[in-house]
Amino acid sequence: MGVTALVMAGGKGTRMKIAQEKPLIPVCGKPVIEYVLGALQKAKKIDTVFVAVSATTPKTAKLMTKFPVKVLETPGKDYVSDMGYASQSLKLGVFLAIAADLPLLTGEALDAIVERYERCGKPALTVAVPLETKRRLGMSVEYSFKMDDQDVVPVGINVIDGHKRYGDEWLDQDIYLFDLPELAVNINTIEELHLAERLLAKKLM
Length: 205
What we know:
Spore Coat Polysaccharide Biosynthesis Protein SpsA, Chain A; 8-stranded mixed β-sheet; about 30% strand; 7 helices; globular; 12 strands; two-stranded antiparallel sheet; about 35% helix; alpha/beta
């Protein structure tokens, strides 16, 4: 039996400076969240899929009625708070939380992440890529941290045991440095949208 996936789709996406809800930003003609849902569907380690929306993403919530997912509205405070709200409201055990703006994601990568969590022996796993990989692709970076003297950037994918949560803090975690360009591409700017479209078009050739 697989783990539950929680797609975080309640953000405003203010950096894009467009009226479109961020999960619905079209990448090669298809809303970016649909690429994430497609990868989750192909992942053998994923069972149920929940999509966490907020008052700022009503059109996303409406679109989700066309997919085999369950929708939960969160307060829309911020990513981590909404993740915690969803975990508590749904009484989730082990779940994979994922941002809705990763258009190059694959089911194989998701399975590798869950398998790493199963081996790590810790209640939480954060997936990161090297900062250099983000820079080489021309991606913006809001936050990075040190891991063994290397600068790394979280990609917006975590596996967490919801039963082992203390207040608003997640307990001890492992870092999975997964140097995969597909994980490094998310969409926060128009330039990154164009980059994602170029890479996706090349991938589909």
